[in-house]
Amino acid sequence: MINPSTRLCDFPLRDWFEAIVEHGIRQHLSEPGLCFAPLEFGVHGRYLNRRETRGRAKILIALTRCRDGEEAVWDTLVHEVAHHAVAEICRPDDGDHGTIFCNVANDMAPRLGYEGRIMRETRRARYWPGSLRGPTRIKREVG
Ligand SMILES: [Zn+2]
């Protein structure tokens, strides 16, 4: 069955992923699977590491994010790429939105044109980078 909302989700996630890694991470990351999926209410995105998938890492963006628009989808992808970077280049990982995630996020944010920083395990980390001011310069360049 084709979900009619998928029509609204025609965003170039692969191009965006590459731009976010190039500008925000500046280190090689493996290519995760990228797709839209129905997620629990209030959840914008989900990251599944290689241990969880037993293969390629996976980034899921909530289908409901599409109706919030392009910037919302971009922000969600940036957040999940930060989780991917933590999983791939930081050892050990200290949990969902702990110090390591916040360090990676705080490094990425200015490189991607966001203003402001986040602190460990706060609501702002959970909703980063939407919790900062945007839209981002890189997003505008990529289109
Ligand atoms: Zn998160």
N-to-C SSE string, H for helix and E for strand: HEEHEHHHH
| Distinct ligands, ions and cofactors found in the model | zinc ion
* Major sheet strand order: 1-3-2
Q: How many structural units, i.e. domains?
A: 1
Structural class of the helix and strand makeup? mainly alpha
Number of E-state strands: 3
Average of pLDDT: 86
Report helical residue fraction: 40-55%
Sheet having the most strands = 3 strands, mixed
Poorly predicted regions are none
Task: Return the CATH class.
Answer: Alpha Beta
Overall body shape: globular
The count of helical stretches stands at 6
Integer-rounded radius of gyration? 14 Å
Terminal-residue CA separation: 31 Å
CATH topology: Zincin-like
Work out the strand percent.
Answer: 5-15%
Q: Please name the CATH architecture.
A: 2-Layer Sandwich
Give your account of this protein's structure.
The protein is mainly alpha-helical and 143 residues long. It has a single domain, classed as Zincin-like, CATH 3.30.2010. The protein is 42% helix and 10% strand. It is built from 6 helices and 3 strands. The chain has helices spanning 13-25, 50-53, 70-89, 99-111, 123-126, 137-142, and strands spanning 33-37, 45-48, 58-62. It has a 3-stranded mixed β-sheet with strand order 1-3-2. α1 packs across α3. The protein starts with 12 loop residues before the first helix and ends with a helix. The model has no long low-confidence stretch (mean pLDDT 86). Bound molecules: zinc ion.
